[in-house]
Amino acid sequence: MTEPLVLELLALPKAVPEVRHAVREHLGVPCPEVQLCVSELLTNVINHVGEGASVTVRLFHAPDGRIRLEVTDPDPHAWLVARRPGENDETGRGLLLLDAVARCWGVWLTPAGQTVWCELLRTP
């Protein structure tokens, strides 16, 4: 496994494109699915935990092509639920997108916070 990318940051809207860029630079190839997932997970933290929350993003790339993305925030009580938004709803599709592009995903809750993770296959 190559060295992981580990980013400690504040959950701010300006961080979303910066982290997408860092993910692409770390992988060294276009990776729209991974960038989509990191965008959605960071946006969830901003919207549901709060702007300015402390966040850790970890990206692991295994030799077999698997990519694991983890986003940790300090809210130990939040639980992610995929909603079925109406056709006119402007939000509520993030976890549906994550579910559509990731091989698998889940949530670890601890007294110190939560980590939302997903695994994807790297596409050439």
CATH class descriptor name: Alpha Beta
The helical percent reads: 25-40%
Assign the CATH superfamily: Histidine kinase-like ATPase, C-terminal domain
β-strand percent reads 25-35%
Please give the order of strands in the largest beta sheet.
1-2-3-5-4
Low-confidence stretches: none
Structural class: alpha+beta
Summed up, the helix count is: 3
- Please summarize the sheet with the most strands: 5 strands, antiparallel
Give the overall average pLDDT: 86
Distance between the first and last residues' Cα: 17 Å
Label the overall shape.
globular
What does the model show?
The protein has one domain (5-121): Histidine kinase-like ATPase, C-terminal domain (Heat Shock Protein 90). It is built from three helices and five strands. It has helices at residues 15-27, 32-49, 94-101; strands at residues 5-10, 54-61, 66-73, 104-110, 113-121. Strands 1-2-3-5-4 form a five-stranded antiparallel sheet, with helices on one face. Helix 1 (15-27) packs antiparallel against helix 2 (32-49) and helix 2 runs antiparallel to helix 3. The mean pLDDT is 86. Keywords: ATP-binding, Kinase, Nucleotide-binding, Serine/threonine-protein kinase, Transferase. This is ATP-binding protein. InterPro entries: Anti-sigma-factor_SerPK (IPR050267), HATPase_C_sf (IPR036890), HATPase_dom (IPR003594).
